[in-house]
């Protein structure tokens, strides 16, 4: 059991899903409220990672953001290294990869807030920001937790992007899924089994939280 | 509806069996073997499907029932293991070449490989060095041995990035994400990389010989076709193609 890879992956997933709360809320808010005619194009772009193979994303991170591209050179002059083979590279790749898993539940729950409450809040003198903070956010708690948990779980299970841009460096980019892959390749089945089982359990628990929260009769409490 | 489905499955099955043999090959053959297969097809009309990976990876797939007919390994040890496990036939084992490890940098690199040799890796401009994964790729193990042979393993180990196989190691350095790479000579000489960079051949005494060996797999349902293809690999035509990709001949074939 490779605990270093396990904690590295948990750290990656925690950072990514936290950042996605910050990035995802404004995007989801805009998607819910905008009446722009071309909004559907943004919606499609946000949903892309759901259908795009991870290899496409990995390819772009490696080549379009590599040291041969202007963007990659800019990043290199800023940080002194390329995105590939670094933990930041994995964070950026995972942010893109898990974006829809955060934004879509956020947007769904923002859209589910009763508009009369928003009008009442506005007529009582609240600014849109105050209304969002005091009415929309508290009423969207379930959606926020769902988005956080789904993007966490999705990052936990990421494999293709990491295999393509990670470079398999222990303690830096060797995530749990890569570790399982290596164990299987070297026919070290008992270790692979142990790690795979742990990942299975963690993923199941995270998804149970999501579906449990979204179960209607539990609006009051799980004991009913 | 179910009849239609059955018919479809029947067709799928028919196509799967009638399409010639499948060869699993070490990643360092990814440039040379398609050429070999093309001239074999021209000669005999027999199609050969190719599947590339690291030798360790492929060995593991074969153990788990992968439908391959012939296995080209970058390291003789893997076919030997399969023979012991009864998964490959001993009398077909054939050392077809010796693989060469090279240090490769892209054309825009300032490093003078002919002067520096392996010491080029110690240059501060080399931030990442791509190698094949030593856990299951023979070139990775050869690289590790060579770095220890030159006594610089500890100095460079923190800058090593591991490719899934030696092809990915080449891709990491070719794309500029790593500044130097230890790759197969067959890749350095392949059209995709040939004009893009320079290489320095790591001396043969720095790492255990990469004896490349091929073997027909016991589970193959096309034993004859598989053996015929391997026969072709013995031929002078195939041998000269392999040498043009930088493979040297095994000791017993050298005159």
Structure report:
The complex is a heterodimer of chains A (224) and B (255). Chain A has one domain (3-33, 43-213): MetI-like (MetI-like fold, Orthogonal Bundle), CATH 1.10.3720.10. By secondary structure, chain A is mostly helical. Chain A is built from 11 helices and no strands. Helix content of chain A is 75%, strand content 0%. The mean pLDDT of chain A is 88. The longest helix of chain A is centred in the N-terminal third of the chain and has 31 residues, at 3-33. Chain B has 12 helices and 10 strands. Chain B has helices at 2-17, 32-44, 55-63, 77-84, 113-116, 138-149, 153-156, 166-174, 185-188, 191-194, 223-234, 236-244; strands at residues 21-26, 48-53, 70-73, 94-99, 101-106, 129-132, 160-163, 180-184, 197-201, 210-216. In chain B, strands 2-1-3-10-4 form a 5-stranded mixed sheet, with helices on both faces. Chain B is globular and about 60 Å long. The interface between A and B is medium-sized, with 20 and 21 residues.
Question: How is this fold's topology laid out?
Answer:
The complex is a heterodimer of chains A (224) and B (255).
Chain A: H1 3-33, H2 39-51, H3 54-64, H4 70-79, H5 87-111, H6 115-123, H7 128-139, H8 141-156, H9 160-165, H10 176-185, H11 189-213
Helix pairs in contact in A: 1-5, 1-8, 2-5, 3-5, 5-8, 6-7, 8-11, 10-11
Chain B: H1 2-17, E1 21-26, H2 32-44, E2 48-53, H3 55-63, E3 70-73, H4 77-84, E4 94-99, E5 101-106, H5 113-116, E6 129-132, H6 138-149, H7 153-156, E7 160-163, H8 166-174, E8 180-184, H9 185-188, H10 191-194, E9 197-201, E10 210-216, H11 223-234, H12 236-244
Parallel strand pairs in B: 1-2, 1-3, 6-7, 6-8
Antiparallel strand pairs in B: 3-10, 4-10, 5-8, 5-9
């Amino acid at each position: 059991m490779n605990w270093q890879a396990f904690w590295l992956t948990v750290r990656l997933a925690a950072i990514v899903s936290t950042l996605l709360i910050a990035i995802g809320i404004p995007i989801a808010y805009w998607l819910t409220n905008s009446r722009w005619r071309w909004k559907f194009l943004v919606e499609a772009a946000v949903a892309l990672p759901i259908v795009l193979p991870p290899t496409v994303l990995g390819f772009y991170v490696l080549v379009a953001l590599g040291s041969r591209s202007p963007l990659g050179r800019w990043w290199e002059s800023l940080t002194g290294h390329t995105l590939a083979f670094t933990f930041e590279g994995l964070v950026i790749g995972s942010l893109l990869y898990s974006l829809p898993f955060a934004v879509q539940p956020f947007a769904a729950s923002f859209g589910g807030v009763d508009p009369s409450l928003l009008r009442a809040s506005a007529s009582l003198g609240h600014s849109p920001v105050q209304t969002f903070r005091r009415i929309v956010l508290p009423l969207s708690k379930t959606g926020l937790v769902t988005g956080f948990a789904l993007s966490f779980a999705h990052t936990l299970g990421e494999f293709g992007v990491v295999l393509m841009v990670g470079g398999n460096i222990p303690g830096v980019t060797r995530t749990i899924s890569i570790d399982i892959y290596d164990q299987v390749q070297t026919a070290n089945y008992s270790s692979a089994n142990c790690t795979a089982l742990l990942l299975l359990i963690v993923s199941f628990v995270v998804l149970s939280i999501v579906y449990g929260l979204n179960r209607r009769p539990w609006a009051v409490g799980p004991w009913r | 509806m179910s009849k239609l489905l059955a018919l479809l499955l029947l067709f799928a099955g028919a196509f799967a069996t009638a399409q010639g043999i499948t060869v699993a090959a070490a990643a360092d053959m990814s440039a040379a073997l398609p050429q070999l297969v093309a001239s074999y097809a021209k000669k005999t009309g027999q199609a050969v499907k190719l599947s590339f990976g690291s030798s360790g990876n492929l060995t593991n797939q074969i153990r788990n029932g992968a439908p391959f007919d012939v296995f080209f390994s970058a390291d003789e040890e893997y076919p030997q293991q399969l023979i012991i496990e009864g998964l490959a036939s001993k009398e077909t084992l054939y050392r077809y070449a010796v693989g060469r490890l090279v240090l490769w940098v892209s054309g825009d690199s300032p490093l003078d490989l002919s002067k520096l040799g392996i010491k080029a890796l110690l240059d501060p401009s080399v931030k990442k060095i791509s190698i094949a994964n030593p856990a299951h790729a023979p070139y990775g193990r050869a690289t590790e041995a060579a770095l220890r042979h030159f006594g610089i393993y500890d100095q460079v180990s923190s800058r090593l990035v591991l490719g899934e196989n030696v092809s990915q190691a080449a891709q990491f350095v070719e794309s500029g994400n790593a500044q130097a790479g230890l790759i197969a000579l067959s890749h350095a000489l392949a059209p995709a990389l040939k004009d893009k960079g320079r290489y320095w051949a790591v001396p043969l005494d720095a790492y255990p010989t990469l004896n490349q060996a091929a073997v027909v797999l016991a589970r193959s349902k096309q034993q004859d076709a598989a053996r015929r293809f391997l026969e072709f690999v013995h031929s002078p035509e195939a041998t000269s193609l392999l040498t043009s990709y930088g493979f040297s001949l095994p000791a017993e074939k050298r005159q």
